[in-house]
Amino acid sequence: MRRTPKMIVLLAPILLGAAAIADETTSPSAIILLQKCSIEYDRATPVGVNYNVGLIQECLVRPGDRVKAGQVLGRLFNKDVLAEMELRATALESSEIAIDQHEATLEVARAKLRRAEALISRNALSTQDFQIQQLEVKNADLELKAAIKGRRTAESQLQLSKALVAAREITSPHDGVVVEIYKNTGEAITAGSPIFKVVKVDRMRVTGYLDVSDAWHVRPKQTVRVMPEHEGVDLPIEREVFEGQITFVDIEIDPKTRTCRVFAEVENRGDLLRSGLDCRMEIDLRNPSGGTGGGHGLGPRAAADTEAQPRSVPRTSGEGLAQEGRER
After folding, report:
1. Residue 91: CB partners within 8 Å, gap ≥ 6?
2. Cβ distance 248 to 263 under 8 Å?
3. To the nearest whole number, what is the mean pLDDT of the chain?
4. Is the pTM of this model over 0.90?
5. Residue 277: phi, psi to the nearest 5?
């Protein structure tokens, strides 16, 4: 028992050195670097209308205009449906007047019935005349109910007309920038043909390809760093770094390239990124939000053992295949 402190003192440097070597060995595996990744807009939507044929009546935007979700970009010819909507609005007003008239008629019939009840109680009115007065009250009540139903029908027809007018409007499905106008004022459209193209520029999607050896270590919500690059040209954007998260890891492996797709979403800070740029993407496996890649599908203890083992991560999928060929 007295020798234990001396043994701990002697073993401490050895243990610390082993821990330092283990850290140096495992640290490269915490980052996966993917080359030749592509950048594109998170959403690029061709916008059309739900009509088979028609004419563009007006175009309200130009390329480069920023638009909000639901904003009207243009309209098809709509004078016919506008006239129909006005007609339905007039019919609704008429139904309101008819209801007022039938309510007044019912009140008059009820007043006559009350007088008839007073007369018949004094034997001053025949039973037949009293029954006729009762039928007049019932008839006035039925006419009022019919008028109320007619108002409901008029309201439904007016709503239908408004929907037809709205269907002739071309609206943006989301916030973004108009980048294409395929049809201008006076041009005809056909079924399924887009009229505008709106892209969402505040967030970008980065697509890369993971080597098969890394596919089980990368998961959604892990942090990424994206560095744009363009061969042959020195661009200021290449000195910028954009951060984001993994959003999708493909479950299918390409048997020819032995890679799988991976998507990441990054914030387009200051609208600096453009669709079509190439980039490098660093995937941080130590990200707490996505968990540690080495422990995916394993228990806590197994995950810790897996993280402790050194792992060589190729920088690109091509380097991984070349390394495997040299090992064989």
Report:
1. 154, 157, 158
2. yes
3. 82
4. no
5. -75, 150
How many CA atoms within 13 Å lie on the side-chain side of 322? 6
Band the pLDDT of 241: cuts 50, 70, 90: very high
Both tokens assigned to 124:
């001053």
DSSP 3-state assignment of 36?
Answer: strand
Using alpha carbons only, give the angle 53, 54, 59 rounded to the nearest 5 degrees.
Answer: 135
Going from the C-alpha of 183 to that of each of 55, 76, 79, 173, 188, the distances in angstroms are 10, 11, 20, 18, 8
Nearest to 55 by CA among 190, 189, 184, 164: 189
Residues 273 and 161: their CA atoms lie apart, in Å, by 44
Instruction: Return the sign of the alpha-carbon dihedral for residues 213, 217, 221, 223.
Output: negative
pLDDT tens-digit readout, 143-189: 999 999 999 999 999 999 999 999 899 999 999 999 999 999 999 98
CA distance 234 to 142: 84
- Reported residue count of the chain is 328
Beta-bridge partner residues of 259: 211, 254
Q: Are strands 196-211 and 176-181 parallel, antiparallel or unpaired?
A: antiparallel
Q: What span, in angstroms and rounded, lies between the C-alpha atoms of 229 and 208?
A: 14
SS3 state at 310: coil
Q: Could you give the 3-state DSSP secondary structure of residue 92?
A: helix
Q: Are 75 and 57 contacting, i.e. CB atoms less than 8 angstroms apart?
A: yes
